[in-house]
Amino acid sequence: xxxxxxxxxxxxxxxxxxxxxxxxxxxxxxxxxxxxxxxxxxxxxxxxxxxxxxxxxxxxxxxxxxxxxxxxxxxxxxxxxxxxxxxxxxxxxxxxxxxxxxxxxxxxxxxxxxxxxxxxxxxxxxxxxxxxxxxxxxxxxxxxxxxxxxxxxxxxxxxxxxxxxxxxxxxxxxxxxxxxxxxxxxxxxxxxxxxxxxxxxxxxxxxxxxxxxxxxxxxxxxxxxxxxxxxxxxxxxxxxxxxxxxxxxxxxxxxxxxxxxxxxxxxxxxxxxxxxxxxxxxxxxxxxxxxxxxxxxxxxxxxxxxxxxxxxxxxxxxxxxxxxxxxxxxxxxxxxxxxxxxxxxxxxxxxxxxxxxxxxxxxxxxxxxxxxxxxxxxxxxxxxxxxxxxxxxx
Length: 394
Hints:
Residues 10-389 form the Major facilitator superfamily (MFS) profile domain. The protein is mainly α. The chain is built from 17 helices and no strands. It has one domain: Growth Hormone, Chain: A (Up-down Bundle). The protein has helices at 3-25, 28-39, 43-46, 51-63, 73-93, 97-125, 128-158, 165-182, 192-197, 204-234, 239-267, 269-284, 286-289, 296-307, 310-319, 327-354, 357-393. Helix 5 (73-93) runs antiparallel to helix 8 (165-182) and helix 7 (128-158) runs antiparallel to helix 8. The protein is globular and about 55 Å long. The model has no long low-confidence stretch (mean pLDDT 85).
């Protein structure tokens, strides 16, 4: 196998790893009502079951800071995505609540490790000038999964298939990851001395970005998971139309990420990040301010576009705060984002129980507002440091 063909295989496997993660998270708001019907419980009571998935992702992200010293990236990816295939098949073959929780926990842990492995592989596979662009494209794969799996979930739920049917498609993608990785050569791991040398404290902008990424995923999934429930309960939207509004968001995200993959090479992450956080906050407001069912799909599309690939742009921006960003720094930033995802089902269920789905959407916008303040603060600190640098050298 020549180098270009091998690079394509490894890159495609990494992109599909992001597809699997998104494919698990994107349809939650769509499969929640039929799962609640299947279990005979209210939606708010069933939603915390998915905490096993999100807390598993958090656990996997934490383990990713350690486990790559034990086995190679290639072996870990093979192991975790094989576990994903088996666990997702269990969702359909076993109706036990315990089996449901354990399967979601296994999938979450595997995805947490797999996502970090995919990001590390992309980092090692591509030179610095193309790395940020390729990381943004991984988010494009995440968005494609959101579109495909959300749309598929709407169709399957409307056709009265088993609630877990969309996840069988995700299992097929995980199997493809296993096949690609099994037939490819992976890049050598990075210099361990770089990891050991990074003992000094990271500057404040890095930690502000970690907190911002936590709020980004918490706010995003507060909006995406509860938007269908809000539309059904408050605006009397049919279930398939409510789910389609979420699918439009992922379409917008994909459009933006394809554009940003090129644009970030032209203007840099430092400028683009301010547009991202502003657009994410402002774009979220009409989702709970508008009551027009005909307009909401387009507002959701515009919100997706306004995000401008925020996750990877903030990560790229944060790496500018240190001279030599290490894989551990990237893993820590991803851990911040994963932490927000992990607590989303529990936090939003508590809010929905105490108030209603519209308040959950408002909470999501509040998360975006604080996120914007943190990133603007990090930008201001880094800008001041850059302005003082020449005087210090002189």
